[in-house]
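Help needed: design a sequence for this.
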């Protein structure tokens, strides 16, 4: 099942939702208003994405390990 991005037409909140291609848009989890599906490629979670997630985690570092980081921040340089 694909993962779609949505934005709320009232409060502007953004969220993701797993749903079929022809399902109607969900209500906003923050305020309950109608939402708009954001255009982009749907993401389908599978074995390839698990490997990608592990690779991204390996690129992250903690505690200001590089000269451009503030001490204690966590981020990646992608």
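Sure. Designed sequence:
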């Amino acid at each position: 099942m694909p993962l779609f991005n949505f934005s709320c037409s009232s409060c502007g909140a953004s969220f993701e939702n797993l749903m079929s291609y022809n399902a109607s848009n969900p209500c906003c989890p923050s305020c309950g208003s109608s939402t708009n599906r954001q255009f982009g490629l749907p993401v389908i979670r599978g074995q390839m994405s698990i490997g990608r997630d592990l690779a991204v985690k390996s690129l992250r570092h903690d505690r200001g390990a590089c000269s451009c980081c503030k001490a204690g921040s966590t981020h990646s340089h992608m």
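Residues 2-45 form one domain.
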